[in-house]
Amino acid sequence: MNRNAIADVAAHFRFAGSLEDVRELTSGLINNSYRLTNRLPDGSARDYVLQQINTYVFKKPEQVMSNVERVTDHLRRKLTAAGEDPARRALRLIETVDGGTMYRDDADRCWRAYDFICDAVAYDRAGTPEHFREAGAAFGEFQRMLFDFPAGELYETIPGFHNTRQRFETFRQAVAIDRAGRVKDLAREISFFLNREEMLCSIVKKIEQGELPLRVTHNDTKMNNVMLDAQTGKALCVIDLDTVMPGSALYDYGDAVRFGASTAAEDEEDLRKVSLDMAYFRAFTDGFVSQVRGALTEEEIRLLPLGVEVLTGELAMRFLTDYIDGDLYFKTSRPDHNLIRARAQMRLLEDVEEKYDALCAYTAALADAKIQILTKSGF
After folding, report:
1. Are strands 110-115 and 103-104 parallel, antiparallel or unpaired?
2. pLDDT tens sequence across 142-151
3. Alpha-carbon span 324 to 190, nearest angstrom
4. Are strands 32-39 and 18-25 parallel, antiparallel or unpaired?
5. Among 132, 134, 124, 139, CA closest to 277
6. Residue 29 has pLDDT above 70, yes or no
């Protein structure tokens, strides 16, 4: 969109000062985002983020905004009560001129705005284990500050997103229909998932049986959704809250490790390059658990490696399902792209399975350390 069009939208928000500059932010894959610089009466500048919500992905933007508003308000209250300035530590929505948090324009496009977090950076991938430890701390703090939030009151912005039982049914239907005529060449891949059905559905089952509590989950725990202080490298704030909804803490932890601790890209063709980097696993786990003490249960911490298994297998199965369907959901750059992605994630899952005892031993040791610390502190 051109500057005049953005200025027309910006006029519907309670921004301080007058618009001076507009720059498109190109790092996001879902929403269209713009950095606005406003000039204040005293001559200083103030930056904001203006976003167009992708209503193809999020069919009910009002529900998305309800979740974001409630969660950000909760985070900011918690930080303030702890004596911290929330300005750079939690997102702050900018009100519209009519007092809401979302503006719908004449073309039925939905918009929202935040304060821009200055002097901060986000990385697409962790360049060092220390960066990944900070990401773990950020997502762990997110869990800790929201552990007393009534998760069941949030909307499911993408219904059934991590319901692997539903994902399995979709997979079975895709195999039965064989829309693209590809099933005949996929016997090994299909068996791979059928042999792991019990494991893949285990978190859903544990939630249903009350063995795992329902938590507020972020559901997109990639490195680039953590803002780090540009000077110190320390975690500041978790961003991109559109997929915040009820779930298990194992989902957030598992997806973060699946993506951030993998030694290869999601579409790596040379499967010899695909494995789980234990140094990155330990770094993220250290950061995450350091922040969830007193928030997650001992059982949740012990079961964190199960999240890595389930989330890796879930994504692999989604890639294969889409390949069988004829590549309808994920964007592809070549005819077998989704099959390559599926095989890469399958190989990663195999490596996770080979290292599973070591993963469990590490998290069990941290769970025991958590108990000792809680005992010493009087909890």
Report:
1. antiparallel
2. 999 999 999 9
3. 10
4. antiparallel
5. 132
6. no
Alpha helices, DSSP H, located in 126-243? 129-145, 164-177, 187-194, 197-200, 202-208
Model-wide pTM > 0.85: yes
Q: Which two tokens stand for residue 266?
A: 């999601």
| pLDDT tens per residue, range 203-257 | 999 999 999 999 999 999 999 999 999 999 999 999 999 999 999 999 999 999 9
Q: Of all helices (H) and strands (E), which one includes residue 249?
A: helix 249-260
From residue 276, alpha-carbon distances to 157, 306, 350 in Å are 30, 14, 10
Task: Check the CA dihedral 54-9-46-67 and report its sign.
Answer: negative
Which amino acid, 74?
Answer: H
3-state secondary structure 310-337: HHHHHHHHHHHHHHHHCCCCCCCCCCCH
| CA gyration radius, the chain | 22
Contact call for residues 64 and 54 (beta carbons, < 8 A): no
- Strand pairing partners for 104? 110
